[in-house]
Every structure is written in structure tokens, then in C-alpha cells.
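Quick start: read one record
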Amino acid sequence: MSIRRLPEKLVNRIAAGEVVERPAAALKELVENAIDAGSTRISVRIAEGGISRLEVEDDGCGMTAADMALALERHATSKLPTDAIEDVTTMGFRGEALPSIASVARLTLESRVAGGDGWKRIVDNGVVVAEGPAALAKGARVMVENLFARVPARRKFLRSGRSEYAACLDAVRRLAMARPDIAFVVEHDGRRVLDVQGGQDRLARVAALTQRELAANSIGVDLDRGDVHLGGVISLPTYNRGIADHQYLFVNGRPVKDRLLVGALRGAYADLLARDRHPVVALFLDVPTSEVDVNVHPAKTEVRFRDPQLIRGIIVGGLRRALDEHGFRSVQRPAEAALAAWQPEPVAPQPPTLFAPYLTSQNPAAPMFGAPDAGTTALLHDRIVDFAPPRDALPMGRAEPATAPVPRGEAHPLGIARGQIAKTYIVAEAEDGLVIVDQHAAHERLVLEQLRRGMNGQAVPSQGLLLPEVVELDEPACDRLESAAPQLAALGVELERFGPAAVMVRATPAMLGAIDCHKLATDIADDLAGYDAALGLSERLELVAATMACHGSVRAGRTLSVAEMNALLRTMEVTPHSGQCNHGRPTWVKLAMDDVEKLFGRK
């Protein structure tokens, strides 16, 4: 078969397959053109998920009639004034979007420059069918109709209108997040689904486009390293999602999807989140154009870094530093659903009585006035209601009084302990509300942080066993423990090989107290095995430390004295990450005084 030159129409369709794989891809290209035109407001209208119609209108610089004709030719663009493609700073630069879209749909392009006349040009599947004057304000309006209508092989691979709409909305959301200075409006089938004003700060824009609660449960990131700057917003570990759909990375203002971000987030939130939970993040990375290649994907959704390990280190380091600086912070208040669960106790209506029963201080179980004598008619009431339950049914309160004054919020934001509920939760009074602490989850985090300091060179004190304990395991597990013995010693665990299928535990971390050495050794061996191939030894030891912390933490069901509870609160206030346990759940919640007053109808 001889080689032939493909016709221009077929070339455009092939290019469209690379650039315009679905309506969301076409919409992304059109919105990027509007951003590059210097727009301050961009309106998007979608019908049937973008399959039947896409429309983008902006108030940018606009185009003349001659520029409009040139813009519909392949590889014609105003965004590369020189041949230095590596220095490109605009969203688009290939000059392929409009001709590619016009080759597989009906495209109507209208535009007007300031002080000029409007012009319209209509291209139907690669053929110019009409052009002439148009009435519109300065800027441009592009309408795409019946995408892939004449390319059935591509049309049948489109998903449902609902799925395509979700992809279109995600594309606009990412671009709107990258440019908080621009106002964006999105309408779907005549219904407005997104409306954000221009001139917002970054946190307000990210929260508006993800979840409103993020503003109160987020941490700012700001890190400079050489010519590289990392900024953005990340959620507290306790504010997370079951899927990773709210994770955004922007490189030089360009939204990209990169596996580097996934790995960096996993490293930054290690031991802060359960494995099936994901943080909400929006990271903005600014790097010199010479250090990143944006011309590696037709749709410009991927980039390639000259030094990917440096970028990963910056992301992990920047996020860890931001998380460390916010110490004990947790989700700031209970969820609305939790607050709604508080309901006033229903009280059955009682018949009016002249006297209420009183109880004497000498005998609280006996009524003050006693019961009527036998044979006497009780005119006021025929029985005395006994409000005092049997003494063996009384709830056991704490004998030790908690009378310390409430400390200042700046010095002790977790307040002062007032009691313990169900031998599990510490109730503390803060300057601005009520704090409830999960004692097991909180102490587990404190132990983990102390073990991590041991891994960083500050040896963890160990406690030798009076009688070393022999733990029998299979031979591979013993091999793993033996190879990691020097690193485990830094964590306070001293063990040695004791035959082919056993190890001898000689010491355990003093902070763990009396623990089950067999279970501890088994769990450590399992952690070393479960991540042996995927992680290095230092990362596996992080997981081992988390397991050890769970073994040695204050268990739910243990009664604590007021002094112990206050000591736990004070330690939490100065310990990084104490706002969440090792699995990402909050260790404490605060019920503001306003919320308490609402529960009692005072507000």
C-alpha cells in the first residue's frame, strides 16, 4: 500500500480526536481562550451535558473579522509571538482548538473589538456556511452545537448527558479556581448551577467551588524554595472525603492532573488519615518556565518537571510544615446533623396540683409532708410521687471536685477539665464553649508523636522486662523483625532472634506501660510485611509507630483523675497533629456557647 497525504478535513478530524475527546474537553479549550483574551467575566451555557450545545461568552479583547478567519485555521495563534514555546505563559498556545472543534460540530463564532463592528462566522463540520455582521458587546461568543453528530463512531462513545455535564462542570470549576480574579457563571439546561464573583481571595474561591465548610476547616500553605513557590489551601486531616475528587493542582496557573500530586499527598498526610480517606486540597505551584514542560499532552492536562523529586519534596515538606504549625486543630464544630440530634426531652403533661412534693435534706428519699394516714381521705392528691430512685440505681459521679477557674483562651484553648463521660470522653470548659475530648484517640496521637521523635534521633526511653518474653512466629516474620531490630530499638523495642521461629522481647517503650508483647511483636511483623515492597524502611516504621501507639494509649473505659485529664489537655495543646487520631478522626470537638444556647432555646 502506497503512502498518501491525508486531506485537510481528515487531518482536522484526527486532531479533534486528540483535543476534543468529549464535550468537557471542547469547553475547556473555549474557556481557556476566554481567559487568555483578558476577560473579567465568563458565562457558560450547557445543554444536555454539552452534547447538543455549548456556549461561552466573555468580555475580553475580542477579534476582528480577519483574525476570526485566521483563528479557524490550524496552528494559527496569537499566543506565541516568538518561536520560544518553552516560555509560553498563556493557557493555550497550540492553535488547534477552534479548527478541531469546527471539524466535528457546528461552530458559531461571534466577536467584536472595542470601537469596532461585530462579526459572525459559522462553520459546519469543517465547511464555512455563513458569515456577516453580528450585534454583541466587546468580547466574543462561541457556540458549539451537535458535537460529533456526523461522526457516529465518536458519538456512540460519549456517556450519558448527566455524566458529560459533570465533566463539563469539573472543567470549569478547575479553571475558575485558577483565576479567582475572574467571575464565572455556568447554566445547565436553563438552570444556574455555578456563580462566583471576580476579585475573590484564593481561600474564598476554593471554598465556594468545593465545600463552604472548608473555609473554617482549612490551613493555608505558603512556601518558597529557590525560584519555586507553593501556595494554596489544604483541609485539616479531620475534614476529609471518601473519594479524591476534591484535589486540585495548578502549575503556573494551569490546572493539571498529575500522579505526582497523588503520591505527594499520600506522603504528606501519612499517619494522619485512614487509607480510604482523602483530604481536600488546592495547591498552586509557580516554577520557572524552564523547569517545566507544558507541551507533553495535546489537551495540556499534563506537565513534565525537570526535577520531579524536588517538586515532590516541596509539596510534602510544605504540607507537613503547614500541618505541624496548626498543632492540635481539629474540625471546628460538630456537624449540623450531630447538632440536630440534640432534642429536648419530651415531657408528658401533668394535671395541676396545689403543692409540689419536696424532699428533706436529712432523708432525700422521704417526702417532706409524708403520706396521708390510713383511713383519711386525701383531698389534694391521693399519692405522693417519689422522685428519688433507688440508691443502687444512682449514676456514679466523680468524688473529686473540679473547681479550677476557666483559663484564658489564648493560653489554653482546650480549657479546663470538668468531668468524664462513660469513662471515654473528657468534658472541658473553655473560654468560648464546651470541649469534648476522646481520651483514647487523643492519647494515641500523643504517643505516636513521641515515638516519631524517637525515630528522628530523640531515643524513646525503654523499660526492660524482668523476664524476657519469647514470642513464637513464623520464620519470615522473625526475619523481618531481626532486620529491623536496630531501628526498633530507637522506638524503645529491644528484641533479638531466639531460634529459627521465635524472637525474644527484652524491653518495650516505657510510655506504653504493661502491654501484651506477643500481640505487639505480631502486629509489628505484620506491618513490616504488608508494606515491604511498596515503602522504604523509614516509611514502614512510621506505620509500626502508629501500631505501637494504639497498643499503649489510654483505653476507653479507664477512669481518669482531674489532674490526669488536665495533663492530657495541656499536652495536646503543644503537640503537633493532636487534633486528629492516627486514623484521621477528630480527637476533640467544640460546642460553642452560641450552639449551647440554641439547644436550650435561648437564641
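The two ends are 84 Å apart (CA to CA).
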